[in-house]
Amino acid sequence: MPGDIEYDLIVNDENCEAAGKEYIRRAENFEIMLVQYESILTKLLSEGIKSGKVHDNLKLYSEIVATLKTEVKELATKAQECNRGFITDMDTADSYLY
Fold it and tell me: What mean pLDDT, rounded, does the chain reach?
């Protein structure tokens, strides 16, 4: 019948959960890369550029890179929590309909 609109929203809980786990997995991989990168910067500072303004700036940059490790993990955890919250919210809304 023209004008009738049907709304079907299908949420695949397993896909949402898998996406949350994928955020964590990628964050862990990125953290491994950051550790390797940090090691390269440290070696560069101790063996390559031992003093001067470039050394000082690179050291500051290296310290900032070190802080990224915890931030990446926190962001992934928050994204996973948002996915779980979405599933919970959808289940709650769905319970009102059925």
Answer: 83
